[in-house]
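Narrative of activities, Objective 1.

The group set out to show that a structural description can be obtained from nothing but a protein's sequence at a throughput compatible with the screening campaign. Below is one input-output pair from the validation batch, recorded exactly as produced.
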Amino acid sequence: MCIMLDLETAGTANNAAVFSVSAVIFSLSTGEVFNEFEQFAEIQGQVDKGAVIDVGTFLWWLAQGEDARRMIIKGQEKASPAREVVAQFNYWLECALSKEELENVQMWGNGATADNVWLRNMFNREGMECVVPFWADADMRTLVKFTGCEKIKKEMPFEGVKHNGLDDCKHQVKICHAAWVKVYGGIA
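Output recorded for this entry:
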């Protein structure tokens, strides 16, 4: 089993404030998605604990589609404190995966310095630890690069709303699965 993360943030630095944490549990060999998680996090409490918002990312969000901007605004209306979000993330994983699966899971993000780092720093700011060990982190961008799947990534049709965390997760699962099939020929 694998986990795909997508965090929407207010910055690109490793200590960026996080708008939302989205994740799906999936099979790399089949591309099947089994379980979903999405929680919105209050921004101010994160900033009070050292998370940052950067102007460049704020301007980038303003340039995104109406649906993406609306998702951030609506998400903040129902947002929970970051501590609750990371606690719920751990609880979701502990309910969805067995102890053995958690010990052997890979947690994928889109960039070696992006989603996984933002999530782990969110846990750190709250004085908590993610139930997925740090050595389970995996990077989709590296997978795509080393499997020669840049064209597949570029041409993969997107379903849903770009920058909606769950839609992004599902799209990234398709890309990882396509890379896996290219390397292993679909052999499970």
